[in-house]
């Protein structure tokens, strides 16, 4: 499952940004502003001569690509976009892809939709030079770093570049955060009669044989995030994940932790009526089969993370790849991720501009506290991964 992809921070130092958490005071519920989806009507200027002089494999902004009209024309001429590992029910990607094709008439091929970030990097390496190679990727942070180290990315700054927080993008434009969410507790109220509100509350004996995460945290990024969140709730820190492992060991010892892979099906059946997962996946994947599902961000730990976009340096459809990024970071694209219950990286800018879709925003679970998010550094993440790899086997032993 794509949920195995790690969502991690990539900064060299601790990065503090604001992950907008709740309803705003902005006055508009419109999804349009100066950063609306670029369209073919954005300019009447002829584009053929401009397009002829542009190298779409290297241009690093719409302006450098000859302007939006030229970029759109070149992308339409390519007529194809290759994406990879984008399940249609993940963060509203099915609608996003359909709307992109409807807007521009560009066909999208989505390879290996249930694959992983590593699968994306493998495809970049293995399919280089082929027409079916990925044009763009959507990967966890550590994989974005690996791709940059390997020289796989083509720098590109979307028109709304300044709306992406500095801590959430590589300064040279190699990769940039797109959407994210918080570790949350999802529960089926038909089977869980007392609402859990925190990691501490899950230790209550009334939750015997009810609590799961979505896999082994040594292999699954979202399960690893659950351990990180548990650490923050139990005296740990971004530099000390060990209390999170100890917490799950305690949860297992009292009989509440079920060491299986929690899925929408296990929540529905009652095998694991409580699932700790990303809030937007609980909303988009579990709530579709458990309509009454409740989603709560724990009061004692707010841990969040993002995925990242990058354009392949070897993209067979380089203009379409760049137009895709412009679409994703437009007001329409950002609100489409929000519709999928994910928090788009430009959410704060949308709120400030009054262009956020208030209906989608209001559907997000509320976040206790200020909504200020401090991401672990790459070094902290690596240390945490090593500790979990060493200590996790003791949880159920």
Give a short synopsis of this structure.
With 397 residues, the chain is α/β, with parallel strands linked by helices. It has 2 domains: 247 residues, Periplasmic binding protein-like II (D-Maltodextrin-Binding Protein, domain 2), CATH 3.40.190; 123 residues, D-Maltodextrin-Binding Protein, domain 2, CATH 3.40.190.
Order of helices and strands: EHHEHEHEHEEHHEHEHEEHHEHHEH
CATH classification class of the largest domain = Alpha Beta
Strand content: 15-25%
- Computed structural class: alpha/beta
Q: Which architecture name of the largest domain does CATH use?
A: 3-Layer(aba) Sandwich
Radius of gyration: 21 Å
Determine the N-to-C terminus distance. 26 Å
> Mean of the pLDDT scores?
88
CATH structural fold name of the largest domain: D-Maltodextrin-Binding Protein, domain 2
Q: Note poorly predicted spans.
A: 3-16, 21-35, 39-47
Identify the CATH homologous superfamily of the largest domain.
Answer: Periplasmic binding protein-like II
What count of structural domains? Answer: 2
Number of strands: 12
Describe the global form.
globular
Q: Figure out the total of helices.
A: 14
Q: Can you walk through the features of this model?
A:
The chain has two domains: 2-180 and 305-372, D-Maltodextrin-Binding Protein, domain 2 (3-Layer(aba) Sandwich); 182-304, D-Maltodextrin-Binding Protein, domain 2 (3-Layer(aba) Sandwich). Helix content is 33%, strand content 15%. Mean pLDDT is 88; it is low at 3-16, 21-35 and 39-47. It has 397 residues and is α/β, with parallel strands linked by helices. α3 links the parallel β2 (80-84) and β3 (107-111). The strands form three sheets. Strands 4, 5, 6, 7, 8, 9, 10 and 11 form an eight-stranded mixed sheet that branches.
